[in-house]
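Residues determine shape. Take a concrete instance:
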Amino acid sequence: MARAESRLGISPLERRGNEEPPQHNFNSSMPTLIGNAFMVSEPRCGGWIDILKEITDAMLRDYPAQKVMHTTGPLMISRIFNTLKKRYKVTLFPYSKVTPVTKDDMGSYIYQGETASFHEKIKEAYCSHYFFGSWDTNFSFYN
């Protein structure tokens, strides 16, 4: 774990989440959409309990669309981020380091073979969240 922490530039006592690419932010009331694809903390960080409580509470609410985004996804994390930041000093990795490609980039890469821009975007990343948007009824690789 120490080697991974060193490569990621985090200390053992740090808590991090990740920004979503700006193209993913469909909610104009939030300046930055915060992703749930990559989150780290030291053992026994109470922030995880806060996240689990919010998931449980959110499941009881009625969301007319994109329930998964509100209950376990980026809208949920974005909704409670300021609390996590204040209570646990949570910080964010920039999207270019952990979520450098969008679902549209994935579609272009898989279906059109557009590799140059894809490889350029992942060049500086620590990791990448390759997702297929199964939750999005407007654009999904499963439709």
Notes: Residues 1-13 have pLDDT under 50 and may be disordered. The CA atoms of residues 100 and 129 lie 8 Å apart. The chain has seven helices and three strands. The two ends are 39 Å apart (CA to CA).
